[in-house]
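Supplementary Methods S3. Input chains for the assembly prediction are listed below.
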Amino acid sequence: MKNINSIEEYDNLRSWPFIEAKKIIDSFGGFEEFKKPKKDFVIFETGYGPSGLPHIGTFGEVIRTSMIKNAFDFLVQCPSKIIIFSDDMDGLRKVPDNVPNKSMLEKHLGKSLTSIPDPFEKFKSFGEHNNSMLKKFLDDFGFSYEFLSSTDLYKSGFFNDMIKTILKNQSNILSIVLPTLREERKKTYSPFLPVCPNTGKVLQVKIEEYNLKNNTVIYKDPNNTKLQEISVLDGNCKLQWKVDWAMRWMALEVDYEMCGKDLTDSVDLGKKICNSLGKSFPINLIYEMFLDENGEKISKSRGNGIGIEEWLRYSSPESLSLFMFQKPKSAKKLHFDVIPKNVDDYKKFLEQYNKNNSLSKCDNPVWHIHSGNPPKIKDYSFNFNTLLNLVSICNSTDSDVIWDFIKEYDKNINQKNDPYINELVKYAINYYKDISLPKKKYKLIDENSMEIFYDLKNTLINLNKSSKSEEIQSQLYEIGKRNKFENLRDFFKLIYQVLLGQDEGPRLGSFISFYGIGKTISLIDRAIKNEDLSK
RNA sequence: GGGCGUAUAGCUCAGCUGGUAGAGCAAGUGACUUUUAAUCACUGGGUCGCAGGUUCGAAUCCUGCUACGCUCACCA
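Predicted structure tokens for the full assembly:
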């Protein structure tokens, strides 16, 4: 089945995943004369360093790559897959902050991650632990991918042929890499990092001799300065990472890989290496970094910006996907304030998608977010900011109470039939619990106003339990009047400050009606006793 | 020093392949005469960073410049 019927339709697709997919297609003859690559499928790669756990950047890279793959699959008939490559053979450079058994790890610094015990004591090695965390992370989001371990491919000999080629051309490669290095590093630089047979450490040492006949290199053992000869094959040597990257492209025949702009120069270098060996290299997209609200780069160690688990606590995965979809080449501020806009934009795009029937639907962000199959959600007429506001104002973590207010506002939706909106309510409640609640300042009742609250309490007790919000409301006005408030506004403000810990609030009649007269009375009781209502 | 990105209303930003400047928030005015706002209606003349160029026509394409920011030049 063909999704695209003419070159015009093809040319009209403008969104960036299509633009990127077209670059791949062009490299294989273009849309009309497309020919599958010799290996019979197209490979997208994303790589992960050893430094630790998956984070929001990881998510961004995988979802963006998936969007391109999806666009590619839509345009041409050609199998494709995403490879997640773990650099688990890299040496551990420093002990991460967020792990147990730090002193144990300390002893293994410099060794490959896959030959260091798991500090969590669940897997055979630290590397395997990290790999499994990565896989779980990706699985939780439902990404499809093929996982590859650097260690496995080195040790199994999969890389051997390409490593031999690198060895043959090592002087050529040196001439490409050396000019990019500082004087100090130039002296010892080699594409080959021997794995010390005695200590297991990945050694960054000067290579004294390259032996092409035996596929070995000779170096001085840093411990005893004796010359040591070691094979470059079967995982006895690792390649220095930039060369490693290029080697991997060639060995796996990677067609597409994106990366953050901090790797710009490395990509360039990798391409040059491939070129010098007469090999092709992947099409590359360089995306911008994420910034915090002050415009500074987000880094896990600094803990600025917002983490993926935070986003998902306060909002939907779809809104995060939308964020990731927008403008990968622009630096984007990633902090809480951008969430509501993405939630509302998602809804807007989805509505647009479900109305419009033209091919340009495929350029709609939701098409990419949902791999070509966006769902339908019930229209709702408030925005997410409003919902956040509502929960905060209602001072309730009870979604039933929130829903009572929502239903009053929009009768067409309800808790059972609109699960998407119900999710939004949960997110809003989380936000309220974490952000708004701690900021509340409950006012204690002073002697002058104590009467008012007794009056309020007694009035509520005498009310019929089935009283409607309007009746309650008019009773409230009466209380205000008989307690001689010149401006009733101050009366309500006092109640909000004491009972809700804020200056403003919902229409009290409605609030008491939904919240429950009985519950309101017990709330007043606690306030009268000067209990801390924030707990 | 190399690379990249951004410069559009007070703020945050949209403006796709060039054709009379938009949204959200903030602000203002009015309405609901019983507070409140998750209310409703109305209100946006901003040299689209600067200077050239292409064009009948440019925020939109090209060149140069300026400012700000990010990134690399250890390791990965």
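Residues 7-156 of chain A form a domain with the Rossmann fold fold (CATH 3.40.50.620). Chain A has a mean pLDDT of 86.
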